[in-house]
Design a protein that fits this description.
Length: about 450
Amino acid sequence: MPAITNHLPTSELQALDAAHHMHPFTAGGELAAKGARVITRANGVFLHDSEGNEILDGMAGLWCVNIGYGRGELADVAARQMRELPYYNTFFQTTHVPAIALTQKIAELAPGDLNHVFFAGSGSEANDTNLRMVRTYWAIKGKPDKHIVISRKNAYHGSSVGSGSLGGMTAMHAQGGLPIPGIVHIDQPNWWAEGGSMSREEFGVSRAKQLEVAILEHGEDKVAAFIAEPIQGAGGVIIPPETYWPEIQRICDKYDILLIADEVICGFGRTGNWFGSQTLGIKPHIMTIAKGLSSGYQPIGGSIVCDEVAEVIGSGEFNHGYTYSGHPVAAAVALENLRILEEENVLDHVRDVAMPALHEMWHGLADHPLVGETTITGMMGSLALTPHKDSRAKFAMDAGTAGFMCRERCFANNLVMRHVYDRMVISPPLIITPDEIAEIGRRARTALDECYVQLK
Ligand code: PLP
């Protein structure tokens, strides 16, 4: 067999890929029919494919490449760390410098008394940790019946059995026997799709109150925790009404329910602060982190845990851990990523330069005949595609068909944007410049125009 390199023709790479590679979240038929786009390299906010196209990445990979592509410093750190200590675990009373240094840095950046980190290899694993950790916490405190975790429909918390159950994606629950018992889902604060005649403010409170109803229905003594993304990402960048989170916080405090903020997307600058909880005024007991922690250069995730929960969990042995918890190479790379975010003032760039330009461009698309609402917080936004702007109407065809068409038109115009049903979402690298943002706007408008013609 010839060596498989970037020099093989695209069609050959696609055939080999389709023959042996099972892709996540991809319909097999689509792959066989069209072949996958082969990405060969990337720099800054641009991807390059095997056909010589330069593609603007409006999604920062999967919401993760916060510092942009091509930062050689991270490669140097990885190589150095691999030579020095490529692997050792953190089980059974061992540790190493990269894990120690990274936990110090995360504890310094995280708000309040979120001072302790339990590492995982991904966001899914970290949420599995959280599920076991909150139940273990209450068991140690003499309340083993406090085991139910309340989550939300259309939430995304990962793809493992535990995290997929915490998530509220019906298409995922339909496969593989999810959700596991002990998880309850309330409705999401998606005003555009589900708000009916309520104002955004009224709707925010009414959706938050569902948490109270669920707690009372199942019993305060049975509910361990509530988990939510500060802003739902994979569900379509659902920015909650301003009334939502204060009410959720009040309810968690009142009923002694642990609050888990899943910061896998919102963390590390995406919303304009280090964490989405700071932007939305949330005080969680645990935060889930991954993605922007290493800007996707290495697989690493974790749970940032408050003093009280860490103390209780640490009073015994938590029978939980992953071979790659605190992996030295991943930890060293994550630390270098955080150094770049901090020393290059990336959050200042977001707040002063990128956010204003992105918001202006995004809201500028609102006049397009296919666009209903445009919403955006920090560097994550979405727009609703609709056949009738004023009535918030849905398309007559299956949900997601228009979104899929629009995503394809974006791709054809060398722009990566994702669709979630009929919402288009955007989440570019944080280091993006105003000129690059303007280019996203031009390509997105062209894609919307083409989609409009196709839908007529
Ligand atoms: N939580 C949220 C909010 C996510 O968006 C994701 C991934 O998109 C996850 C958890 C799962 O993370 P991972 O894919 O690293 O397992």
